[in-house]
Design brief:
- The strands form 3 sheets. This protein has a 6-stranded mixed beta sheet with strand order 1-2-3-4-5-6, with helices on one face.
- By secondary structure, it is α/β, with parallel strands linked by helices.
- It is 19% helix and 32% strand.
- 42% of the residues are buried.
- Its cofactor is Zn(2+).
């Protein structure tokens, strides 16, 4: 049985998602080493098939090493954001510098299967060079590309307003019935964003 759990973690309230398929779980953007997150996995005797990052800013990666060390799971991400894992300036660390020691495996655009999960990984640069989205059935996990009524900022290291516009143009071609799970804030749908989000009015 498939299900999705959302945990709002860390100082900037990042959405960390647990994707469940029976007792197998895929973790998206672990924003901290949260005991609540670990307890949720352990309560269901979860087998962690992997961690997938939408991008590598500090608030989306802070829990990676803890989860990898506990569950012995691999880390997957776009190779263009790998340098951010070990550079606190590039990953925009606020407060204590965040450095991830886990070696990441590269996800390229297209369909992938990790454990019991088959999904499409989509390039969506702009907020960072390696920003990506994950499409699992009709669920779009878009990181900091798209929010309810807004988009991710483009004034950080490796950001690009031009590439963000290209990513938004691609999003405009996607199925409006998709459910959208952003990196921050409430869940939405593409249909609502096409209608109300001022950054998609073109």
């Amino acid at each position: 049985m498939k299900s999705i759990e959302t945990f709002v973690l860390g100082m900037v309230q990042v959405n960390t998602y647990l994707l469940w398929n029976d007792n197998h779980v895929l973790v998206i953007d672990p924003g901290s080493k949260s005991l609540r997150l670990q307890e949720a996995i352990d309560k269901r005797n979860g087998i962690v098939d992997g961690i997938v990052l939408t991008h590598a800013h500090f608030d989306h990666i802070a829990g990676v090493d803890t989860l990898v060390n506990k569950y012995h799971c691999p880390l997957y991400m776009n190779d263009l954001d790998i340098p951010l894992l070990t550079d606190p300036q590039l990953n925009f660390s606020i407060g204590d510098p965040i450095i991830v020691h886990t070696k990441a495996q590269v996800l390229t655009p297209g369909e992938h299967t990790i454990g019991k999960f088959t999904f499409r990984y989509i390039d969506a640069p702009g907020h960072s060079e390696g920003c990506s989205m994950l499409l699992w059935d009709d669920h779009l996990f878009c990181g900091d590309v798209l929010f309810q009524g807004s988009i991710g900022r483009t004034d950080l290291a490796t950001s690009s307003n031009t590439k963000m516009m290209q990513s938004l143009k691609y999003i405009k071609t996607m199925d409006p019935d998709l459910k959208v799970y952003p990196g921050h804030g409430p869940r939405t749908t593409l249909k609502d964003e096409f209608q109300w989000n001022p950054y998609l009015q073109f």
